[in-house]
Request: fold
Amino acid sequence: MAEPKTVTLTINGQSVTAAEGTTVLQAARSAGIDIPTLCEHEKLAGFGACRLCQVELVKGKKSRVVVSCLYPVEEGLDVQTETERVNRNRRVLLELMLARWPWVPQELLDRYQVQRGRFEDQPTFCILCGLCVRWCNEVKKENVLGFVGRGTERQVVLYPELAEKVCPQCGGGEMECLKVCPTGVISNEFVGAVAGAAGKVPFAEPIRMMDADNDRSVAELLGDRGK
Reply:
């Protein structure tokens, strides 16, 4: 078997060799270079949802920002991971995320000097990273979770008829999506409630979430727009 072709690129001035087809994020990590991300998992395909892993590619006097978890390495590529432009973008992304999830990792808030309160709080506790949806689809092959809506209306939903059959046994009853969700938004009490519901269950139901005081559904917090 032929050896995989490798390419050499530069990340923050450091020469890095990586196999062709490797993403910039993977190459950086293999060299011990930290690039933040909240939607990446080694068992899942790149998704680019949180966009925190963006980096700046420099070519002469020109540069552009790309998402490193999706961008493949190239021979001679010059990558900068912490430029002023990139860090400014990350700061805004984290500020927007903080309005949805008040427990964004403090290390990231400190690292990029994020201030609370710039955007109106809308505590959905879901940052739309897609980890739960992708885990259920790509790893479990069950497709119990999915996305509905676009833009600010986008949210994660659960398909009750599938959930009744799959979720109680998933992960020994613990539901594996709970383990990959970075925010703790999904409540495993939801499946039991749906299973005991009278009459026909809805085609899709917004996932449940936890807030500081009680357990409320996304539908309650967002005005039932997901149904």
User: Anything to note?
Assistant: The radius of gyration is 20 Å.
